[in-house]
Specification:
heterodimer, A: two-stranded antiparallel ribbon, 14 helices, 2 strands, B: globular
Chain lengths: 366, 350
């Protein structure tokens, strides 16, 4: 990590309050805190808690929202505790964590490449994960390579696929530093290759394997247990704080490489940190729930339109991603006749919202 | 947004003599490569033919040997289709990247691929349509519908259709349409079984009738693209500057998007989605021609055709006696070359 130029200013408003925000001064550090940039993450967190409670309450054995909350803070009764903690919580927790990771990763990529279309989806990283997972599903019956791939299991195969793709992307883009434009171009190539491999695997598979592989590609939260949630939680406990710390550097990178260097950012180290953090976030998320489409690409754009500012806010993107995934999962489980994979609903629910924001659009993020 | 890397060939058109001669050489090389690729595409296959046999079969339409029949009924239509589709995809990619000013801009971003996919899935699932020739019109209508929706939404916001709103509207609408596609596919195994072979993109198994069906649309699209190229150069200076220089912005956008829709829609209808050509060819070509669209557009057409035909020939050879679909070959063999190109020389910014 290179030295951040500014310490994160604590959110306590201690200056003159203006219409759009407050100036915060702590010792030698000062900055402008916009009200909406605080309000959006807080609101998103509140909605996330509410949606999670509703989601955990719904099922064959309904539990009311107050009961859910009471049980979660440790005041519940035996049967409800078992149902919540053993059966329903893992699914919701995986959903929230995956949404968080995808949102943060998308915001990192979009800010770094200065391109609203850059995301782990368009740069081929989630497709790389799909190559691993689909390979594990499709090739499990034949060949030494297929057997070995199937032996490590789908989540690990996906993790390996995403990490290998991400690290190759990083290495092939690296030329004494990473240029955002070059990252995007090399990413296109990776996306094409990975897509072609997945298509090829699908056309050569038995149709049953192809169908289950297709569900995985769409992204699903069915049958998720604490075994899926724990590795993801541990990884994110490290990655998300690091990403938030890196966001100050990102702000400086935003003004251009030369200026950033002039302001004392050690450029190659900062660039490497940002890209590798983004890759790691998405790799763990994809390994837990599949490449839930659309979240990483468009949630940061929704976040920047809600919170204001010149670039996607990291925390708000992550929290809104979590809201979207948990909300979409709630809809698939309760409102629809058959349980569709959550990856379908994230797009069908999230896309119209972004389109509406675009049509209404006052501000443009460029 | 377009962190442009400043470099020699990004200089304004016609300023330096070496730049101009390099473009002419590039153009000539591309023409030669196109001819060679056509010849290879007609000669190479499960049954390899000598160039002499090919020549005789082409000249003498009365010849009824087995070789002559193969050439006239299988190889020539396939080559013609590859030529048309490759050129169409290359040009539509160049226009798309110019209009969105985004290196990730491919025609699929305008809703072409997603719209076509949804139409094809519905045609298979609801109407029981089977086979590439049955999909053509559905795919084409779907592509048109997708583009119109994207353009309508992208230009509905205040300030009209800007590169950013267009790109984002396309991305969001594509996601929505793919969501619908997946809703069908996840629960309908039979449709998935047909769809998975359409979605890889192939020129095999398409008769001469498909080339005739999509040919007129591609021809009109090419004319519109040629008319649009100078306007794109002005738009590249920024909308305000372009307006100040007398460019009618909405007209340029409308002509460009119509061209993209016709070209990419027809190509997708004929062969299924082939993303790689539209994404990569303009970047590779820009490294030689620079950002001048009057050069970029025709060179992208030739390079797209060369790339598609070459990939098709390679696909026939690598897994004999079977074939690998052209979409897969393109990405697996083309992508490493593209990475090498990106790393070796600085690419010209948009």
């Amino acid at each position: 990590m290179s030295a951040p130029v500014l310490d994160p200013a604590p959110p306590a408003p201690a200056g003159t309050v203006r219409r759009s925000g407050a100036v915060v001064r702590v010792g030698p550090v000062s900055g402008l805190v916009r009200r909406r940039q605080l309000a959006v993450p807080l609101a998103a967190a509140a909605v996330l808690v509410l949606l999670s409670a509703i989601s955990m309450g719904r099922g064959d054995f309904p539990i009311s929202v107050p009961d859910v909350l009471r049980t979660l803070v440790g005041l519940g009764v035996g049967a409800q505790e078992f149902i919540l903690f053993e059966l329903r919580a893992p699914r919701v927790v995986v959903g929230a964590l995956v949404g968080l990771a995808l949102g943060v990763s998308g915001a990192l990529f979009q800010t770094f490449a200065r391109n609203p279309l850059a995301s782990p989806d368009t740069l081929g990283i989630t497709m790389g994960a799909s190559v691993g997972a689909v390979g594990a599903i499709v090739l499990s019956s034949g060949g030494a390579f297929g057997g070995a791939l199937a032996g490590i299991g789908i989540p690990l195969a996906a993790l390996a696929g995403a990490l290998v793709t991400g690290i190759l992307l990083f290495l092939l883009t690296w030329r004494s530093g990473i240029d955002g434009y070059r990252l995007v171009l090399v990413g296109i190539a990776f996306w094409s290759m990975a897509t072609a491999l997945v298509d090829w695997l699908l056309t050569n598979a038995e149709i049953y394997d192809a169908a289950s592989a297709y569900v995985w590609i769409t992204g699903s939260l069915n049958a998720r247990t604490w075994d899926h949630a724990l590795p993801l939680a541990v990884a994110l406990a490290v990655l998300v704080p690091l990403s938030l710390a890196a966001s100050r550097v990102l702000a400086v990178l935003q003004v251009g490489d030369d200026t950033a260097r002039g302001l004392g950012v050690r450029l190659p180290a900062a660039q490497a940190a940002v890209v590798l953090l983004a890759v790691a976030c998405v790799a763990f998320a994809v390994s837990a729930a599949g490449p839930i489409t659309f979240v990483a690409l468009v949630v940061p754009q929704i976040a920047v339109r809600l919170a204001g500012g010149s670039r996607p806010p990291l925390l708000a993107s992550g929290l809104l991603g979590a809201v979207l995934v948990v909300g979409a999962d709630l809809v698939t489980r309760t409102a629809l006749p058959e349980a569709l994979p959550v990856g379908i609903l994230t797009a069908v629910l999230g896309a119209p919202y972004l389109l509406w924001l675009l049509v209404r659009g006052r501000r443009q993020f460029t | 947004m377009t962190a442009a890397l400043t470099r020699g060939s990004a200089a304004p058109p016609g300023r330096s003599r070496p730049g101009r001669s390099r473009r002419w050489i590039g153009l000539l090389v591309l023409v030669a490569l196109t001819v060679a690729a056509c010849a290879a595409s007609i000669a190479v296959g499960t049954r390899s033919l000598g160039l002499g046999e090919v020549w005789r079969a082409l000249l003498d339409s009365g010849l009824t040997t087995e070789e002559a029949v193969i050439v006239r009924q299988l190889r020539v239509p396939r080559t013609a289709l590859g030529l048309l589709v490759g050129a169409a995809l290359g040009v539509s990619g160049a226009l798309m990247q110019g209009h969105t000013r985004n290196p990730l801009g491919d025609p699929g971003l305008l809703g072409v691929t997603a719209g076509a996919s949804l139409a094809v899935v519905l045609a298979i699932s609801l109407l029981g349509i089977a086979g590439p020739s049955g999909y053509v019109w559905f795919a084409f209508l779907g592509a048109l519908g997708g583009t119109v929706l994207v353009y309508a939404i992208g230009s509905a916001g205040r300030g009209g259709a800007t590169p950013v709103t267009l790109a984002l509207a396309g991305a969001a609408l594509s996601a929505l349409l793919y969501g619908l596609v997946r809703t069908v596919l996840v629960s309908d195994q039979q449709t998935l079984d047909s769809f998975r072979f359409w979605v890889v993109g192939a020129v095999a198994g398409r008769g001469a009738d498909i080339a005739w069906q999509v040919g007129p649309f591609i021809a009109v699209g090419m004319l519109l693209a040629a008319a649009n190229a100078p306007a794109l150069n002005l738009l590249g200076l920024g909308e305000d500057v372009a307006r100040g220089l007398g460019q009618r912005i909405w007209l340029a956008r409308a002509v460009g998007l119509a061209a993209i829709t016709l070209l990419a829609g027809a190509a997708t209808a004929a062969c299924g989605p082939i993303a790689f050509v539209g994404l990569v060819v303009p970047h590779a070509v820009r490294a030689v021609t620079g950002p001048d669209h009057r050069w970029l557009v025709p060179c992208s057409a030739l390079a797209g055709a060369v790339l598609l035909l070459t990939a098709d020939v390679v696909g026939r050879v690598v897994v004999r006696p079977g074939e690998l679909q052209v979409g897969i070959v393109l990405a697996l063999i083309g992508a490493p070359f593209f990475i090498a190109l990106v790393r070796r020389r600085k690419t010209a910014g948009l």
